[in-house]
Amino acid sequence: MSKVKLYDTTLRDGAQGEGISYSVMDKVRITQELDSLGVQYIEGGWPGSNPKDMEFYLRMSKKRLKNSELVAFGSTRKANTKVEEDNNLKAILKSKSPVVTIFGKTWDLHIRDVLKTTLDENLNMIRDTVNFLVARGLTVFYDAEHFFDAYNSNKEYSLRCLFAAEEAGSKAIVLCDTNGGTITSEMTKIIKDVRPQIKVWLGIHCHNDADLAVANSIAAVEAGVDMVQGTINGYGERCGNADLIPIIANLKIKMGIDCIGDDKLKELTHVSHFVSEISNMKQRNDQPYTGSSAFAHKGGVHINAVMKNPKTYEHIEPVLVGNRRRILVSELAGKTGVLIRAKDLEIDLSKEDPKTKKILKLVQNLEHQGYHFEAAEASFELLMKRALKKYKRFFDLEGFRVVIEKRSDKKITSEAIIKLKVKGIKEHTAAEGDGPINALDNALRKALKDFYPTLSKMHLSDFKVRVLDEKVGTAARVRVLIQSQDETDTWSTIGVSENIIEATWQALVDSVEYKLIKDEKAQSQA
């Protein structure tokens, strides 16, 4: 097979994932990214289910996509209802979407226990709905919900559902593993049985409840499907959907199957991180191909081998998917880790240079105290620049105070007061927050915003606290890890202290200064 069509349902199926909620503008921005990537079909939502999705479709009807077609989602008509009177189908027509995906029941269990209708009426629902939309000039895809369970329950009837949609004019029949529990070998066997019986496109739609969605999607392609449905980063209900990011990479790199343009493959990491940001979901460090740990090396043996030949511990070149190799700096990495990081920063160091030994000793001493630089690369970059006197301060702290007050009305308030010297000017400001950490963050930003406006583009995306020596009880040292993000990058910083506020301050300052150094460098290269 030389070509496979990609169908993205991040904005509909992905939005059903716990903790995800997209605004109309979020949906527009993600659609534009997917269009730029070259995904052929983008399912934007279910216009019959809520006003927000309808607004999205009406807004998108005024925009032109370069590479993708927008798809509206809906269900077959209701049982014992005239197709012309079905409100869901009226909403689909109103959406002005040129392509429609209709899902219908194929499992006799669902027809009896959920729809409470007959098997014959369900076939009529499929046939009538597809006919109705095709007659109005729309391209229709039919999602055969729960197909693999249906096939095992009643093979003959499940196939009749597919034939009904095909005969009514559906351009694609999509086999859905809706419960996400089908084993790969079983799925392959069923697809090979179905494929010769379907004349139109055959698609696959997998959920990840058995952690097999990507493997099943790849196996389905090998078994003959023409279209793969999934979501960016595998977002979706319960355990999520098939993750289109590794699916695309596997199809292109491992199997030589065309699904997006060769020049677009390197955009995978950007798109993965972009959708993570818009979805307000923490990016998985260990996500294959695009995670920050996907090409990260920590052990000294691994690092030594990779530097001689990357193929020793990497299955592809990271640059192919827009990612990069990372050499983690820790007491396990030795001088090699320091030298590689220095090279990344365009700092000239050698193994024999006393400065290299000095930095390694500093790292080892700090990690003995509880620092963890493999998880805080931004802090390590700042540490190295300070040690080599290549560091510029953007502000000086004169003092801060954090006040926590519990009032008689049981409400707890937090306020931070901070004094800084910025570019020779004294700044004295205060801010409230949801807690002491948030208040301190707000006060720092407030003091710096007029001097460094780009800080408004940065926000804290993750905050972790770990007690390092539990036996000391409340006097124990804590390690604070902060992950920050702006429009293009994610970085992590660290602080360690017996005082959680001080540890947080260290990580906050590193986070802000790293952002300012990064922006300064980008401006000088522009």
Task: Give your account of this protein's structure.
The protein folds into 3 domains: 5-278, TIM Barrel (Alpha-Beta Barrel); 296-369, no CATH class; 396-525, Alpha-isopropylmalate synthase LeuA, regulatory domain (Double Stranded RNA Binding Domain). It is built from 17 helices and 16 strands. The radius of gyration is 27 Å and the shape is elongated. Strand 6, helix 8 and strand 7 form a beta-alpha-beta unit. By secondary structure, it is α/β, with parallel strands linked by helices.
Topology:
Blueprint: E1 5-8, H1 24-37, E2 41-45, H2 51-60, E3 69-75, H3 87-95, E4 99-105, H4 108-115, H5 119-134, E5 139-145, H6 147-153, H7 155-167, E6 172-177, H8 184-194, E7 201-206, H9 213-223, E8 227-230, H10 244-254, H11 268-278, E9 296-297, H12 300-308, E10 326-327, H13 334-344, H14 354-369, H15 377-387, E11 396-406, E12 412-422, E13 425-433, H16 436-448, E14 459-467, E15 478-485, E16 490-497, H17 500-525
Parallel strand pairs: 1-2, 1-8, 2-3, 3-4, 4-5, 5-6, 6-7, 7-8, 9-10
Antiparallel strand pairs: 11-12, 12-13, 14-15, 15-16
Helix pairs in contact: 1-2, 1-11, 5-7, 6-7, 8-9, 13-14, 15-17, 16-17
CATH fold-type name of the largest domain: TIM Barrel
Shape: elongated
Q: What quaternary form is this?
A: single chain
Determine and state the CATH class of the largest domain.
Alpha Beta
CATH superfamily of the largest domain: Aldolase class I
- How many domain units? 3
Number of strands: 16
Percentage of residues assigned to helices: 25-40%
Cα distance spanning the termini: 43 Å
Uncertain segments: none
Helix run count: 17
